[in-house]
Amino acid sequence: MPYQVTNKKLNEWVNDITELCQPEKLHWCDGTQDEYNLLMAQMVAEGRAIPLKKCPNSFLFRSDPSDVARVESRTFIATKNRESVGPTNNWVDTDELKQTMTALYAGCMKGRTMYLIPFSMGPVGSPISKLAVQITDSSYVVCNMHIMARVGTEVVAAINNGEDFIECLHSVGAPLQKGQKDVPWPCAPIEKKYISHFPEENSIWSFGSGYGGNALLGKKCLGLRLASAIAKREGWMAEHMLILRLINPQGKKYHVAAAFPSACGKTNLAMIQPAVPGWKVECIGDDIAWMKVAQDGKLHAINPEAGFFGVAPGTSYKSNPVCMELIKEGTIFTNCALTDDGDVWWEGMDGEKPLHAIDWKGNNWNPAHKEPAAHGNARFTAAAKRCPAICPDWENPQGVPIDIFIFGGRRSAVVPLVTEAFNWDHGVFLGATVASEPTAAVLDNVGIRYDPFAILPFCGYNMADYFQHQFDMGDKLKSKAPRIFYVNWFRKSQDGGWLWPGFGENIRALIWMCERIEGRAGAKQTPIGYVPEEKDLDLTGLSITQAKISELLSVDPEVWKAEIPKMEKFFSQFGDHLPARLRKQLDELKSRLSLNV
Ligand code: OXD
Ligand code: MN
């Protein structure tokens, strides 16, 4: 053991879990590079990891084809009472779920090592951070957690000092009998997978999956589902938001937190290289923001994570050059394709397709294959501190003061490039009606999925109470509250082409937001909020036709009227639980659109 553990609660929990899961060995993690190197070397020797000749200190893993993504249908929130988790979560009674899962955990680590990972979400010692310990039987998970969280002796020292910690229990659910040969990616069948949260006692039990958010428990499980429930109780915010710092040509700093549903470009915006000279962006986080009201009355945000667990397909020098530089070395790749010269490849990368590769399932692949070479949810895991655009304040324990909230989704029609909310309550309505299309190929507005605040799959309590919490935070922050905007980079013209070039040009919408704060930029009042006119945006150096810009910024009340029944249907599932203030916002939108309330 690399350190003494004197915390009684931790020792008792570890003893109980050891007795239940019956591992062959125990390994207390110290978070050092030596530990990482040792575990990686073991996984290479076992044939689980492939060292990449072209990327120094980088490794490729291939998961079991049945274990490739978060499984929302197997994700549960257990409480005493169903109403507390609401209609958008899978509810199970706490005692019942514990009984089911205890039976699964019995002997589940036979023949395996049980790792104990003490970790901190956020800088150790920050008033916004939380400590936790993850138990796992996967060395792949340990190495990923080294990158994604702050792991090590500092955390143990704080726990020994009596600081509380969150218990996170994980097993891949694949015990080994004596003499049984292991597989490269052990996991359990889908019906035995459980990603369970116990917000009433702040614990997480995950069983059967080794992939991503199912297994790296700091991320969605603690970082969002548990943290959102704790934040509601304690009066702060845990959001599915990137955090960035924008610096204008005069050196003035603005801090932005932005929520988009998964696969709508959060990582790209977090690392944006502005196309407008003089403006600079620094990255603080790409997925989660924890925010508390600080002494100055403003909302201060930290990124609780220490790394990026990003979607690889679509990442390129065109979409995200900063990220491409970041993942050139020291990266764990999962379910990407392997090229003949020892590099990784995925669909949407710059340049030609390789003539031959090994696909994510380990089979020969060439461009004639119908199936993609990399899985659609292939990932990279890379340390934030190595990001070329990382903000010098990204680990500031006080966080950064947030000036701007942005919401957005992928909509090929209806929604203009950028809209400003009339006020906080209207901004909550904009957040509550975030919607996205499943694919960019859809031209009309059918098939949209509501994902309020982009947190629907990650909210650990009743979404209707979450909406109320947003109003309560506005009441607390008053004039110090962030200004709220809504963006849509994905609007298309009638002929199906993109109206907006996106990527580095998205800075122009962000510049308008800063100029609105300064009272320097104009806007026209529309039924859905304030929308810039062409003259209000800085479009210098951008070649875009006048027709495209006016279509991009247009708000058609008739088209918006057709949105109302969809919103009403979405809200109706919350019944009487829906806050009256949200209902009022919908009624006000209807009357602005000249609809009967
Ligand atoms: C993620 C997600 O993995 O949102 O970040 O799905
Ligand atoms: Mn996410």
H/I helix tally: 16
Low-confidence regions: 439-445
Q: Which descriptor suits the 3D outline? A: globular
Arithmetic mean of pLDDT: 96
Notes on the structure:
The chain is α+β, with helices and mostly antiparallel strands and 597 residues long. It folds into 3 domains: 8-47 and 74-235, Phosphoenolpyruvate Carboxykinase, domain 1 (3-Layer(aba) Sandwich), CATH 3.40.449; 239-305 and 394-595, Phosphoenolpyruvate Carboxykinase, domain 3, CATH 3.90.228.20; 308-385, Beta Complex (Phosphoenolpyruvate Carboxykinase, domain 2), CATH 2.170.8. It has 16 helices and 32 strands. It is globular. Residues 240, 262, 287 line the site of manganese (II) ion (MN).
What distinguishing features does this structure have?
597 residues; Phosphoenolpyruvate Carboxykinase, domain 1; Phosphoenolpyruvate Carboxykinase, domain 3; Phosphoenolpyruvate Carboxykinase, domain 2; 32 strands; 22% strand; binds manganese (II) ion
